[in-house]
Structures are given as C-alpha cells and as structure tokens.
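Suppose a classmate hands you a notebook page containing two proteins, each written out with its sequence and a corresponding row of structure tokens. How would you begin to make sense of it? This section walks through that situation. The first entry is reproduced here exactly as it would appear on such a page.
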Amino acid sequence: MKTFRSGLTSLLALPLAACGAGTVVPPARPIAPPPGPPASAFMKQGPLMGADARRLTQMFGEPRLDIRETTVRKLQFANGRCILDAYLYAPARGKEPVVTHVDARSPTGTDVDPAACATALQAK
C-alpha cells in the first residue's frame, strides 16, 4: 500500500512540476551600464599636477630614483623629512609626460600630505 501511495504521489506531482518549468526570456536588447566619469575626474588637484620632469628637477633637484617603464615614469625625491613619489604619464601619444599622481610619506613610511612634503623638499 505504501508503494502505491508513493507512486501515486509521484504521478500526481508530474503535472505540477511541468507548470513550474518555464523559459527565461532575455531582454530585447542588452542593458549597458551607465558611462563612468572621465579619467580626468580621478586626478587629484595640487601644485605638482601637470608638471613635467624638468619642472620637478628645478623644484627639488636631482631625483633619488628615476624609473621609466612603457607608459609611466616615476621620479622619487627625498630628504631626511619626507619621500615624494611623482608618477608621470603622457597625456597623449608623443606628448611630454606630466605628473598625474603623487604619493608622500615620512622616512618611517607614514603617509604625509604631498604639498607639505613638497615644501619640505624645497627647503632642503
């Protein structure tokens, strides 16, 4: 009798299972995410932004490091009070690379304000 009931239950469940099966209809056209802000919106403002390597050298003297890669140039300036890393990228093909980002830290590695570090580097 138990086998009969379980078989009957299974048999009755089949039509119900068929009702739940459906197809998911994709949207008529793909939904594109909204456009993000332009790259220039991510550039921090500051006295060093847009400066080229020659200008940085005039301000701080010869860099402690000058690392050149395919798309970026990193100049590092330091004195006993702070270390400043300036990252230069070309704004367009064939143009002179300019500062688009700076990081500054104390000799112990604590973050410091880049403008304050720039002032300290100029004071020598």
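The notebook's second entry, a different protein, reads as follows.
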Amino acid sequence: MKEIILLKLGEVVLKGLNRRSFEETLLKNIRRRLDGLGSFEVHERQSTIYVTPRDEDADLFTAQERLSKVFGIASLTRACEVGKKMETILDAAAEYLRGPLSAVKTFKVESKRSDKQFPLNSPQICKEAGGYLLSKFPNLRVDVNHPDYTVRIEVRDAAAYVHGNAERGAGGIPVGTGGKAAILISGGIDSPVAAWMMARRGVELTAVHFASPPYTSERAEQKVRDLLTKVGAYAGRMTMFTVPFAKVQEQIMANCPEELFTVIMRRLMMRCAEKIARNEGCGALITGESLGQVASQTLEAIVCTDAAANMPVFRPLIGMDKREIVEISSRIDTYELSIQPYEDCCTVFTPKHPRTKPALKYVEKAEEALDCAALVDECVANVKKTPITPLG
C-alpha cells in the first residue's frame, strides 16, 4: 500500500499572476525541510503538493512533523494512493483507516472528484463508501453533522487518495517571498513571537542580540540561540549577530540622565541593528514591543526610538495583550525557554524611575553627551556571528 503526504495550499492560491513564484519558493522550502529524511519526490498539482517517498528508508513520520511547520501550507495529511477503481478505493479505505475506524462510534464520508471521467460523482462515491464501511465496521453509525471521524476520498487525475482528518498547517506565506528583515531578539517571551509572526508573512530573518558581559552570562546568550532554533523550525536557517553592548550602557549611565537611560539605550540599539541590517541586505527592523506593556513601550517612548532609525520598524505585537502573546509562545514551543531566569542587557541597567513620556528634543539633547556614531561603529565592528540551524 503506497503512502504519501498531501499538502494543501492556503493563501498562495490567491496570488494571481505572482502565484507561480510563491509556489516555487514553497517547493524549495519543503525540499530543504525534507533533507536527511530519505529520498522524496515533491511536486504540485491542482493546489495540492504531493510528497512521495522513493524508497522504504524515507521517514514519513518525521517528514510530516517538519512539514507541519512550513509556512504556506494550510493543511496536511498522510494518505493512501490507489488506482482509480471503486473496488480498489473501498478496500483501501477499510484497510488503511482500520485503526481509527475501529476506535470511534460515528463517521461520515466526504469525497472530491477532480477527474470528471470517473464514473461516479462525489455524492455517489460517498454513498458507496459509507455503505461499504458500515458493512466492515459494525461499531460504526453515520453522523453527517458531528462525526467522530471523517473519511476523505479524493479522485484526482493521476490516482485516488484515501485519508482521514487533516492536520492544520502553519498557514501564512512561504519564507523568502516577503523580503528580509532583522529581528531585535532578547531572551524574553515577546521577540521570538514577533520573529515567528513576521516569518509567517514570508519574511526571511536575520537576528540581532545585544549582550553585556560581564553583566550578562554566556548562558543567557545560549538561551537566545536556543529560542532562535525553535523559531527556525518555522522560519528556516538564519544568522544571529551578537552585539557587545556593555560599554555603550556604561557610557549612558555615566553621562546621561537616569530617567532617560532606557530610551537612549534603545535608540542606540536601533542604530546598531540598522547598520547590521543594511549590511545583510535587510529592508526593515522587527521588535517585540506591545503598546503600553512597559515604560519603554509607551507611544512617546516608541516615537523617540523610531526617530533613531532610518528604515521601517515592524511591531507585529503592538496591539496584542500579554495573554495573546503567551498563547502563541506556548504554541510555537518558546514559552518554557523564555521564562528561564537568565538576565539580559535590558534588565541589568534598568533605572528606578524611567521617563514614560519622554520628549524627543530632550532625549536628543541628552544624547549629545555621547559619541553615538563611534559607539555604534565599535559595536558593529565587534559583533559575533552565529549560524542558527533548526533542529530537524
């Protein structure tokens, strides 16, 4: 019995004249994720991608797990591929789905007939298959409204496919179709979620992390690498740039008003990140800020921060509350890592009473005590580059 994986396209099908370029990028991403799992044939037809093992060593289980995290796929399922004879389809349905059909009480059959030369139409296929499965599984009864299990039969041009309930895919559009941007990544909950959300819109990521040894530890930096590896299961490979930031923070502490420390620090972070982003061919920056969540994320503080950047700044979490962010963090498996109690550079120099509504002219005046250009150049000249390769 030949088993394959069926991948259903989502938003990609709406792309009109650009659709083919989206599909080609998606196929490339799929083949990359299957690397190391054996030999597979991957091709697209009728808004469905067929992933077919070429040999017995191909790991279908791990392939399905990896493909569930590829952006651009609306749903996926393992399916049995059979010839287009009704008797063959019925026998395959009873055998291939024996496990789930034996374990439930109610079911229904859904059918899609793309090959209009097939002698039965979709309602007739459902009727034939439903009656046959009832004769084979006395535990079953039909429930077309709220079945425990749905048997799906697709009759397409090349073959017929039998499968059960499909798994929801990652959705979005393929990574690599939405340009390239740099995510300012910390060890907290928010920025990994922001990275995931922008990758879901097709953005290829470069990561910029600010470390402040000896105030921050190697373990804190490793935590960020681990978070990016989790995000990379969806976003693919990326490079992490670790910026040595302790000297900048010490200079700010020594020369600037304490209540403006955080906003000045973030402005210098934006300048460093922008320089790295431009060197890497990025067209925008990404942050994990949510309006009003902390003192540095008030509207006035964000205005001051953005004034330091000369490229667009995307904030996909800007209107979300913490509960919504935590829910996504849990779903993409970054939450437990994010709450590990390792310090980051944004927390070790926090002022007691930060200015929540800073005025840009006063912030810029306070910055005159610093040689910002020299500090940024020194930081960027000493960055550490780390390749991030997703697990699996």
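A careful reader of the second entry would note: The chain has 15 helices and 15 strands.
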